[in-house]
Amino acid sequence: MQAKRRGMAMEKQVKELPLIWLLIGNLVESTGMSFIWPLTTIYMHDYLGKSLTVAGVVLFIGSMAMIAGNYTGGYLYDHKDARHYLLLALTLSLFATGFLVFESGWPYYPLMIILNNFAIGVSGTIVNSLATTIKRYDSRYVFNLMYFMANVGVVLGTLGVGFVINISVRLIFIINFVMFAVFFVIASLFYKVPKNDKHHLKQAKQGGMKTRRYAVYIITAVLIAYFVIQLGYAQWQSNLSVYMEKLGISLSKYSLLWTINGVIIVCLQPIISWIDEHYNVDIFKKVYLGIGLFVVAYSSLIVAHAYWMFIMSMVIVTVGEVCLFPAIPTVVDKLSSASEKGKYQGQIGIAASLGHAIGPLFGGVVIEHYSYGILFTLMALGVFMSEGWLILCRRLKAKIGD
């Protein structure tokens, strides 16, 4: 009898997507993408001779394409064969990155970047949704590790691109293609929808159980907070560099802030994961703490004028990021019904992409008509209000009902 039970347990484990390959795939894809995204603006401006405005338009369209991919990926996961469409999306990425190896001039470069962004939106949402099928571990543990591996990839990619670009720009495109090829092989071999989880696909097709109304309100509040935070985070990646230059702080020192960001994430994330695993910290406490730290960090920019102040602000931002960003897909996973996992995991990507798309334009308009101080004040106030709305939604849970 015991032998039979062990055999059944092993069979159950085989049916479940292996976490290790999910993490390796996440690392490979993140590393490959991190060879490309820092290059986009510089490549179009310095190599293709296009204006920064044109580069900004391409980045905006790319973000919109990723949003479309996030939505499409969520729909496909809930209603179709997830693995089939994941491989199809990765095939599109292989085509786009492979094309750039041989032809990276205008207008092929922006077209392939936009196509790849759409494909990444689809594949990223499906992979996040597949992560919710892993039952051997708590979802917060899974998403903590995925976030950690993605950031290790960012650190490796952004460090590597500086060395590779001195050798050859084409070599960057080759590396990007190879990374997606490796990811495709991993996905084709190991990313299979578990048999014991396929029932949720059937439920979705037949109009299965929807996410409860109170849960939809809370998820929406979380996504609004995430969007507002990403709106502010986009200022760090765009307008803040100009502001620091005006204060006499060099571009190299600005770049160092992102190195600090990556190092803190890689060092702190395993500690946070260990605390989660051993002390079972309430997930919403982490969400509140993370959002609160973003309020403090954005507020600190209002008075920042020396480099050490920007370092402290970046440290606070990064700690808030480590607390909040992996917690968001966990919260969404725990609150959404089995038939709508893909839908709401896709909306996480949409919130982030929308914030990154609108952020630079929003910041530019505010700076042009008012000031940097007003921009930082609006960022802090927006995040503060979104946290208040989330707390209110949770307290009204009983009144909202099912």
UniProtKB/TrEMBL annotation:
- Keyword Cell membrane tagged: yes
Q: Which stretches are annotated as coiled coil? A: none
Q: Which residues belong to any copy of the Major facilitator superfamily (MFS) profile domain?
A: 18-397
Q: Where are the transmembrane segments?
A: 20-40, 52-73, 85-102, 108-130, 142-165, 171-193, 214-236, 256-275, 287-308, 314-332, 344-367, 373-392
Intracellular or extracellular location(s):
Cell membrane
MF terms from GO for this chain are: transmembrane transporter activity
Q: Does the keyword Transmembrane apply?
A: yes
User: PROSITE patterns this protein is in?
Assistant: MFS (PS50850)
Question: What Pfam families does the record point to?
Answer: MFS_1
Would you tell me the Gene Ontology cellular component terms? plasma membrane
Topology versus the membrane = Multi-pass membrane protein
- What keywords are assigned to this protein? Cell membrane, Membrane, Transmembrane, Transmembrane helix, Transport
- Which PANTHER family does the entry link to? MAJOR FACILITATOR SUPERFAMILY (MFS) PROFILE DOMAIN-CONTAINING PROTEIN, RESISTANCE PROTEIN MDTM, PUTATIVE-RELATED-RELATED
What is the recorded name of this protein?
Answer: MFS transporter
Organism lineage string? Bacteria, Bacillati, Bacillota, Bacilli, Lactobacillales
